Amino acid sequence: MLPLITGSTRIYGLLGDPVKSAKSPMLLNRLFAETQSDAVCIPLEVGTQGLAEFVKGARAVRNLAGLLVTMPHKQAMLEFVDVLHPSARQIGAINVVRCDTDGRWEGAVFDGLGCVLGMQRQGVSLLGKSVLLIGAGGSGRAIAFAVAAAGARSLSISDLDPQRAADLAHRVTREGSCEVHAGPADPAGHDIVINATPLGMNPDDPMPVEAEQLNPAMVVVDIITRSEPTALLLEAQSRGCKTLDGQPMHVGQALLALGFLGFEDIERRYSEGL
Amino acid sequence: MLPLITGSTRIYGLLGDPVKSAKSPMLLNRLFAETQSDAVCIPLEVGTQGLAEFVKGARAVRNLAGLLVTMPHKQAMLEFVDVLHPSARQIGAINVVRCDTDGRWEGAVFDGLGCVLGMQRQGVSLLGKSVLLIGAGGSGRAIAFAVAAAGARSLSISDLDPQRAADLAHRVTREGSCEVHAGPADPAGHDIVINATPLGMNPDDPMPVEAEQLNPAMVVVDIITRSEPTALLLEAQSRGCKTLDGQPMHVGQALLALGFLGFEDIERRYSEGL
User: Fold this and answer.
1) Which of A102, A134, B65, B227 is deepest in the core (most CB within 10 A)?
2) Is residue B56 annotated as a catalytic residue, yes or no?
3) Taking Cα atoms as reference points, which of B228, B97, B236, B12 lies closest to residue A5?
4) Domain containing residue A43
5) Are B97 and B181 within one domain?
6) Eight-state DSSP code of residue A209
7) A195 near A229, Cβ under 8 Å?
8) Is A32 an 8 Å CB contact of chain B?
9) How far is B36 from chain A (nearest CA, A)?
């Protein structure tokens, strides 16, 4: 249940295609209700071809206060905002737009930082840890930068395309003091394993890592959000690992996005645990 | 309180400028909640200059299912829809747009019919009655046609601009069997008096009718929606008249708009009384 929507309620859109299974409107509206914020999040299904027209029209809506941006618009939105938050420049993508009252739109991305915050909220610190990251695509890129910034000792990046893994490792190396390199999908010697590939969405998918190398000292994170655990998480659990599914990252992203949108009170209140 | 908004919730906008005091989102969301309809109504504040861009952008939003249209866009929307409902052609205005899944937008106007339905829901029938209508502007025009169609015996239309009253009387005469003419703002001899001017919004406004002619057999309707009764309604009450404020018309409009938007169940369930 949600609070009343009146003529003065601030409107936030979840922009994507498709949006049918999007979870952000429910999460944000719950947080708005619990904090008695006069705001509402609604899904807006816009295809790639309609994005430019949508943005022009949305800029005419004075009470539109922000957009959460999901697939397939995370890269395309870069050219439709007026200001890029450092996160968006670094990652080359946007997952939230703040529509300021002076008409300026600023874009940021909290996929990676949200993943780290989600892990921290579940008691998993990255400080001094050795991390294996599988996948150097959009989500993997964001997570790599955030893992390095969160104080990991080392980061090994694995991708089906070794060049893509090497390129990302090279870029992340320049950002901080974490030792970053490309490598195989082998958990041996790592403290934390993060799957940032879509492998596990479908029942026939191969395992994203060499699962026989998992041991009970490891934490295994799979960013896929489904109601059922992925094969990787089931295998990790059977080997005694602590596991996290995509939900903590989703909540972490949402909290950081809300802080960026001006709801610092919500971000503070929930960042330490729900 | 409202039901959950998910990725599959249909979106309805209340389009106007300003929208701060708009009551439709609260009313529609209450009706959606009570009937467990997976739909939500949100305010969209768009100025005159932004309307064309807004419409192009809104057409890119696949889950936008309709718009309620209020000031100042009721006439301007005529050129942005693909199909005009007979009501919109007759009145020359639009207060609701249905966005069909094939991309076609159809516009209709239920201001007048909503006023009549609101009166009926309060036990005031127009059948065989003599009606004095004050104001031949946008709302007055819509109400004149609806009063004639509802079976009034006669309709006298008064306006500060006598030519505007005469023109409207002439047009409504052609539509039905009601005897319609322009005349003074004098309630004498009428059964029902309807104020469709803005007189009464401000404390210094003159009385829209010759109030000393009101008698206890008369019903006095003031379409202005405010929390406090207008001076006209207070005067009418002191003279023993039955009075209706703008709320019944607002609810009547909303029910007819919901029927047009496909919520025939809501229209049926509430049309006989809330």
Assistant:
1) A134
2) no
3) B12
4) 10-109
5) no
6) S
7) no
8) no
9) 12
